[in-house]
């Protein structure tokens, strides 16, 4: 088995655990160019989905004659799904490895807005004791939270929101019952769900069906007090429509860990939208707990692959 690893997050842990399994059969590369050069000899690739573009994608589709398995080192696999893989190649992601960090970051963005944290930080800079924001402060208790996308991360967000007293509506393609939500609705009922939600948490994959799912029309359906949080992919939200909705008071606020494109250009109007807080695709960062969970998921699959056992966290592309 010849495996190639290209990683940034969790690289040291991945090298340690995979080397213990593969020894000299693991090739660690440090640049996309080195990855492209190594692909023709690889039986397995360990890489992030964001790299599944350009020359890397072309190399996988055209020169990866030995390839049998791609271990995506993230939860998302949008690029692999969009561009496809050679026949016979399995794709796996890291399952729930990132869910604790991403879920908590989504909650942090929501509470930053609901608890008026930026207002108090500005006061602190001025050495001011101003309590006028008290009238705007709310909490999740008694509110309705819509979680769009009910995979590992969506379920973790739902768990946290329910613990804080929100009524959680999970939204999935089918709307099949799930014990992690107070109720489930199909994507076909999204309009009705948006009309009810005080917070809207986006944890969907990006594809043709979800591109600009949140747009001028769907934003117009939301409550004026609604806060939207996106920790999935930037392309799910029409950012120009969101900018206008925030300026016009159509919704109360938004928290984004993802944008389209990334990084967001300095001149983009989204930067200046009111009641908007942007983090730089940061949600998965949670120190050793995240790197250990990512590397462990990859290592367990590596052992399974060597034994010829069924892989875990297989995704459809």
Features:
Rossmann fold, elongated
What proportion of the residues is helical, as a percent range? 25-40%
Broad CATH class of the largest domain: Alpha Beta
CATH level-4 homologous superfamily of the largest domain: NAD(P)-binding Rossmann-like Domain
Shape: elongated
Give the distance, in angstroms, between the N- and C-terminal Cα atoms: 23 Å
DSSP strand count: 12
Overall mean confidence score, pLDDT: 97
Number of helices: 11
Please tell me about this protein's structure.
This protein has 317 residues and is of the alpha/beta class. The chain has helices at 11-22, 32-38, 54-63, 78-83, 99-114, 117-125, 152-163, 190-196, 216-221, 239-248, 288-307; strands at residues 3-5, 26-28, 44-47, 69-72, 90-92, 144-148, 167-172, 183-186, 199-202, 227-230, 253-256, 276-278. The protein folds into 2 domains: 3-97 and 287-307, 3-Layer(aba) Sandwich (Rossmann fold), CATH 3.40.50.720; 99-278, Rossmann fold, CATH 3.40.50.720. 36% of the residues lie in helices and 15% in strands. Helix 1 runs parallel beside helix 11, helix 2 runs parallel beside helix 3 (54-63) and helix 5 (99-114) packs across helix 7. It is elongated. The mean pLDDT is 97.
């Amino acid at each position: 088995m010849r495996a190639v690893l290209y990683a940034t997050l969790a690289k040291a842990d991945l090298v340690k655990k995979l080397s213990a399994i593969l020894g000299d059969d693991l090739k660690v590369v440090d640049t996309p160019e080195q990855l492209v050069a190594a692909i023709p000899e690889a039986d397995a690739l360990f890489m992030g989905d964001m790299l599944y573009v350009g020359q890397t994608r072309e190399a996988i589709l055209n020169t990866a004659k030995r390839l049998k398995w791609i271990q995506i080192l993230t939860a998302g696999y949008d690029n692999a799904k969009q561009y496809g893989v050679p026949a016979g190649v399995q794709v796996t992601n890291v399952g729930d490895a990132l869910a604790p960090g991403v879920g908590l970051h989504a909650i942090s963005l929501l509470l930053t807005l609901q608890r008026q944290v930026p207002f108090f930080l500005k006061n602190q800079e001025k050495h001011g004791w101003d309590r006028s924001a008290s009238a705007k402060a709310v909490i999740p208790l008694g509110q309705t939270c819509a979680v769009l996308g009910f995979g590992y991360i969506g379920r973790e967000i739902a768990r946290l929101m329910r613990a804080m007293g929100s009524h959680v509506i999970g939204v999935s393609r089918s709307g099949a019952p799930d014990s992690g939500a107070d109720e489930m609705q199909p994507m076909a009922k999204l309009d009705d769900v948006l009309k009810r939600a005080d917070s809207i948490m986006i944890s969907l994959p990006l594809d043709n069906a979800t591109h600009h799912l949140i747009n001028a029309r769907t934003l117009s359906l939301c409550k004026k007090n609604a806060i939207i949080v996106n920790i999935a992919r930037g392309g799910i939200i029409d950012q120009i429509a969101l900018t206008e909705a925030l300026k016009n008071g159509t919704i109360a606020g938004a928290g984004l860990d993802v944008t389209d494109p990334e990084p967001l250009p300095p001149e983009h109007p989204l930067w200046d939208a009111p009641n908007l807080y942007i983090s730089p695709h940061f949600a998965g960062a949670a120190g050793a707990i995240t790197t250990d969970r990512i590397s462990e998921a990859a290592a367990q699959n590596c052992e399974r692959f060597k034994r010829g056992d069924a892989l875990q966290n297989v995704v459809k592309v």
